[in-house]
């Protein structure tokens, strides 16, 4: 649970998205390679009519293990718990900034509450003599003035990555 909450911290944003993109490029490449391997195996099986039935059945079983045609077009499945966690982190990040896709008045309300939360934290950091986090200083520009950059460089790449890996999330784009 902690790994999910920490994923919403912008300090980790670009490394998480980069990792997610890398994992899904490799997964996509791997799936393509498995499909090519299955096609080559099918051709090999067809040209080796002299193989005994048991050998042919073994090749067929191995091909079905490598590629299940019923999964064609299905969203990718995590290969392990690390990939599952990474996918959940990206999904939570998308939910965390979901107000960007709402009606303008709803987005403005969320932005106002968010900016006040940030300024309150900046006030506390100032009281404790700590460096004030970026966008948390009331004396400077807050998050409301940085939305175009945030949208272009953070939100769109995040949603593009998510919808590329999971086409069912396309409406978020």
UniProtKB/TrEMBL annotation:
<dbReference type="Pfam" id="PF00233">
    <property type="entry name" value="PDEase_I"/>
</dbReference>
<protein>
    <submittedName>
        <fullName>Calcium/calmodulin-dependent 3',5'-cyclic nucleotide phosphodiesterase 1A</fullName>
    </submittedName>
</protein>
<dbReference type="GO" id="GO:0004114">
    <property type="term" value="F:3',5'-cyclic-nucleotide phosphodiesterase activity"/>
</dbReference>
<dbReference type="InterPro" id="IPR036971">
    <property type="entry name" value="PDEase_catalytic_dom_sf"/>
</dbReference>
<keyword id="KW-0378">Hydrolase</keyword>
<feature type="domain" description="PDEase">
    <location>
        <begin position="1"/>
        <end position="173"/>
    </location>
</feature>
<dbReference type="GO" id="GO:0007165">
    <property type="term" value="P:signal transduction"/>
</dbReference>
<keyword id="KW-0479">Metal-binding</keyword>
<dbReference type="InterPro" id="IPR002073">
    <property type="entry name" value="PDEase_catalytic_dom"/>
</dbReference>
<dbReference type="GO" id="GO:0046872">
    <property type="term" value="F:metal ion binding"/>
</dbReference>
């Amino acid at each position: 649970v902690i790994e999910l909450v920490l994923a919403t911290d912008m300090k980790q944003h670009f490394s998480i998205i980069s990792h997610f993109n890398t994992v899904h490029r490799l997964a996509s490449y791997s799936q393509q390679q498995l499909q090519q391997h299955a096609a080559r195996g099918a051709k090999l099986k067809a040209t080796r009519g002299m193989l005994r039935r048991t050998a042919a059945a073994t090749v067929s079983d191995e091909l079905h293990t490598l590629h299940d045609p019923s999964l064609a077009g299905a969203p990718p499945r995590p290969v392990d718990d690390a990939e599952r966690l990474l996918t959940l982190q990206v999904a939570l990040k998308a939910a965390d900034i979901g107000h960007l896709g709402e009606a303008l008045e709803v987005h403005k309300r969320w932005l106002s509450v968010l900016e006040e939360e940030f300024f309150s934290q900046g006030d506390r950091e100032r009281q404790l003599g700590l460096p004030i986090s970026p966008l948390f200083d009331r004396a400077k520009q807050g998050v409301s003035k940085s939305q175009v950059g945030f949208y272009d460089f953070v939100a769109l790449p995040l949603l593009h990555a998510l919808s590329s890996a999971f086409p069912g999330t396309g409406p978020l784009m």
